[in-house]
Design goal:
heterodimer, A: 448 residues, four-stranded antiparallel β-sheet, 14 helices, 12 strands, elongated, B: 235 residues, alpha/beta, Rossmann fold, 8 helices
Amino acid sequence: MKAHDLLDLAARNLRESLLRNSLTTLGITVGVASLVAMLSLGVGLQELVGQRLSRSGLFDTIVVFSGQEGRRADPGERRARTGTSPARPLDQQARAEIEKLPNVKEVFPEVRFVTAVRLGSESGARYPMVAGLPPSARENEAFDTLQGQFFSAPEAEEAILQLDFAKDLAENPTALVGQELVLQYAERKPLPEAAGGSPDGEDWGFSVLRREKKLRIVGLIENEPYAGRNFARGRVFIPIRLAETLNALQPSSLRDALRTSPARPTYNSLQVRVTSPTQVQATQDALKKMGFSTFSILDATRNLRRFFVIVDLFLGIFGSLALAVASLGIINTLVMAILERRREIGIMKALGASDGDVKKLFFTEAAVMGFAGGVAGVTLGWAIGRVINFGTNIYLRQRELPPETILSVPWWLALAAIAFAILVSLASGIYPAARAAKLDPVQALRYE
Amino acid sequence: MNNAVVNGAAIRTEQVHRHYRMGPAVIRAVDGITLGIGQGELVALLGSSGSGKSTLLNLIAGLDRPTSGAVHVEGRNLAEMTSEELARYRRHTVGMVFQAFNLVPSMTLEENVELPLRFAEVERSERAARVREAVERVRLAARLAHRPSELSGGEQQRAALARALVNRPSILLADEPTGNLDSRTGEEILNLIAELNQSGMTVVMVTHERALAERYAHRILFLSDGKLVNDGQPL
């Protein structure tokens, strides 16, 4: 029998006992809804934690060192790299090559230095840490509560202040937005040959010059982005390219002076941001092949993922209990249908239906109930999730906390739940379908 | 028995037995029947209740399997067929009519007649014409949208006849087709069956009404206790 005929006959049969079949489908609906609600809790929590971690910028970032730096920093890395490509300096050329790697979003050095800062109209200075921020920092959760705006360009002469520091500068910090901020910093300038510098030879050095830079304050943020990565907290943030061009004296500058020639400046390390955390491993492998040492904290999340898999498994098992009960309802309904339609099955066989046709018809009826129950269950589960999210957010608002999505029903969960409902229904239909197919047509035709 | 008919028959049974076990007792519903029915014959199976007529008809219809012996229809031994092959045989070679009509009550006449076409996987576009052809043959075209409960007994049996014809079988098997009908309506049905037979269809009909059998059948086979006791021409 063709598929459309099977569906047509199955739908007709289901309509014949509408109330009973609707109740059975309702059982599946409740089962699927409970499964979806349970799993959406697991998914929602996982997404919540994942988004927090992902937006922290820690999980899609790789720190790249020259091979030599990495060997000192990580003995494990040294063991792993033994016998592979030789260590190479982390210079401009290397940075350009890394930028060209697939899935690399941006590459930038860490620029942090201490400055003297004063407002354009005042004379008293403060000495905060200045940090360069890449354009992608805008996605960091620290900017969720940004007052004002982000940098207009990667090299814009603009600054964003950390709120506590801004409060230190002015009683009304929001009034600072648009004002001028003067940065006094120490510029690192290579020595000319006449002064004893010899960039291409054995000896070289740099002088330290006091410089001033006027910036416009464009925004305020409460917390420092990527705060977990550094010991010294940044208070003034400027665009990364501007920070690089300042060539300011940094804590690592003395070591650099001993190690690298001003003719071929190198970076201590580079931050490489990739398009998603899933690309970290492949990019790390590519970087190692290029001769660099790398570090990422993605490994630390593996245990976290394992934890969520176990949580999802338990939630899925508990959620499936209702569906298991519903599957008994399907078996009961279909067995009842065999008793009621015994004569009809006999007629069908007398008219040429094969055992397989009868079996397929019962399977189709089970699958239709599974599909209908699955779709309704996903809708109900989604609605339960919305109600729980709504209630949770009312509670969070009362506690002056930002709203969160606790339960999330992604499309794959919806599809998987419907597919699972159909699968469970088909499994429930195995016994009734086999029993219907085996009916002796002569006996069935005699049945009153 | 006419050996020439047996050898060139559309339907041929050879020492066919159908026994049922009921506790310690063995019921010999069909007990070693050998017969042949020629192409285009109208044969009536006559006998008292429990003589084995319906069981023999079910064996010829491929609804039941013999305990031993062979049932050859158009050269194929039904006893050796798989259940899938038997279903195909029931779909394409034979059409069945029952005493109780056996229409599906929830379906309209049109849907009932269309049902065998679904099992035969006939294209949808072709079905309406096939259904119309079958119902016109039994003169029931005006009642297509009616459910069985809205039809008289005679109309229901004509609908069942249309359903049996819709897959254009070469053999019609009728189990007491007039058993639930009054004599006038019964005659109408038998006239229809005789018309079909005249168009070349082989007909095997179970009946207990000897007068009707003698009037319409070419041959009457008498069964008693599962055995063929007489094979003769009607008087």
